[in-house]
Amino acid sequence: MIELAISMTVVLILTAIAIPSMMRSIRTYQLNDAASRFAGMLKFTRFEAVRRNRQECFRMQQNGTTWTLGTDSNCSGNFDPNGKQEVLAGFAALLPPGGMPGQGPICNKLFNNGGPCLNTTLSGNTGSVGFDARGAIRVGGTISANVYVFYIGSATDQEFGYRAVLLLPAGSTQIWTAPQGGPWQQIS
Q: Residue 40's domain is classified under what CATH number?
């Protein structure tokens, strides 16, 4: 009986040590997965525009704490009824730009300057982005010169940091990561 009690105590101590590390790994995975799925939907919509040789829109819409991402092939403001869609729900969600670490490291890498370089108007807002037949971003009929950023994280628990999905003017994407206080580092 004593040996069983000692064994159970050892198991409980090891479990208590392992749980925080395991939770951190799960939260990191959830953030990376959400950022990858978001970037994947941007890429899918861009490739559809190139494949179909016409303008296609990527749409994001908030429903409570859930975000739906998908294609809008005629840029009407509605998802394609039979089109590909992704849902971001749970721990990781699209966030508004307030409270994020500074853009300096991203701007230095992209443009060699520390000033604001990212367009944050779409992050955390319902909206859409259009891609032309070449896969470039179109806004109001002209090719956009902006680098759009979409922040992903937890609205209630910033301890696990943030991910930023960058959409470059030519239509390519990058994923960046930052702990709660920064700085940003590119991961893909």
A: 3.55.40.10
